[in-house]
Write a structure and sequence with these properties.
mainly beta, about 5% helix, elongated
């Protein structure tokens, strides 16, 4: 008997009723954006992988690809970038059992709902996208950012602000010399 997951198109929730031991192919597609963070979302995503179940071990492995929309750290303009992320997560089958120390193992673990019959991969997808985020999100390498004086986007227009202004709190250090003291 093979397990055939009932997937609602665009949903990340999988019905596990009838799951048998073995490795089962799993394809999840979503057209609606999956909101990862306040300014990050994953759209047009596709997960190609498998759900492996043997005894009390259940794992989801596969490749998540999609289009991430995030804000540029310099100019704050939303931009798209394609992602392809390898994903592996253990499915914690008994949500009532706290003896396994699952509270300490947050990374790479998906918990079932209290009923234990559905698996929501949205949490694993969000975690994978967050971990794949670059340290500095830039719309392009040459991004000029915002003017610190007037706030205009320097990529779209030029301003005549004096950008050589310095923080007056550092003025006291101007007169210090880098030479070593004479004895």
């Amino acid at each position: 008997m093979t397990w055939n997951p009932s997937l609602v198109p665009g949903s990340t929730v999988i019905d596990l009723n009838g799951l048998t031991e073995g490795t089962h192919p799993l394809v999840v597609e979503g057209g609606a954006p999956l909101h990862v963070d306040t300014d990050v979302s994953l759209g047009d995503f596709r997960f190609d992988g498998a759900l492996s179940y043997a005894f009390d071990d259940c794992r989801v492995r596969g490749s998540l690809s999609g289009n991430v929309v995030s804000a540029c750290d310099r100019c704050l303009v939303p931009f798209d970038r394609d992602v392809s992320i390898e994903l592996e997560a253990k499915v914690f089958l008994d949500p009532a059992d706290e003896s396994a120390g699952v509270e300490e193992i947050a990374e790479g673990v998906i918990r079932l709902d209290p009923e234990g019959s559905t698996l929501d991969l949205a949490v694993a997808f969000r975690a994978a996208v967050i971990l794949d985020e670059p340290i500095k999100n830039l719309c392009r390498d040459e991004c000029r950012g915002l003017c610190p004086v007037c706030g205009v986007n320097r990529n779209e227009s030029k301003c005549d602000c004096d950008s050589s202004r310095r923080d007056p709190r550092w003025d006291a250090l101007k007169d210090l010399s880098t030479e070593s003291p004479k004895e």
